[in-house]
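Small ribosomal subunit protein uS5, Mycoplasma haematolamae. Tokens?
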Amino acid sequence: MSSATTDNKKPVHSYDYRRFGKGGGEQKKGESILGGASFLREGEQKKEEEKKFNVQVSEFEEKVIKVKRVSKTTRGGRQSRVWVLVAAGNRKGKIGFAIGKSKEYSTAFYKAAKKAAKTAVRVPMNSKGTIYHEYLGKHNASRILLKPAKEGTGIIAGGPVKKLLLLAGYKDLYSKNLGANNPINMIRATINALQSQKSPRMIAKLRDKTFEELFHLPPKPEPEVISEDQLEA
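Tokens:
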């Protein structure tokens, strides 16, 4: 009786997902069960990217611009958080800023510092550590006027603008706030003024002229070509 019942049972065929995948077909080398890139390789790539990013972030210096406590009302009650505005720079012409929020100050600062370094932009700077020309940066209601200064003047600015300029690596510069005092708008207006700088050679290129023609300088002497006969003599 037991043998008859076992013979009448249909054989159960197990579906090999590792071989055929969810959608059928042979599984290729280096692919997961679902047919995508292997999770192991993705994890290794992320680790390598994080290592490279940590090396880049280590070059940056951070400064806190503003800290405040914010709260939000939910069904469970009022939740309070720390809001941190951080600026970061490598003192070699790269600056960025970001906002971090968390229940603890240290976590909020870490989030903001990491994002500021990741979103940093390059700003032009001449060999003397100042800007090329005067410019008025604008963002919303903020107006930041930047002027080049002589060597030894230092950074004459206030609030978040001074911290940002020092982190960028500028040595001598005048700055004046002509608009609203919102720190985020002031930072954006300062970055706008810095990124709008154009070197003399860049201006000459935009006008389809050489550097000497633009500033009425004598042309550079062409190098002398020495023939073989002169070398032998």
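Residues 19-25, 27-37 have pLDDT under 50 and may be disordered.
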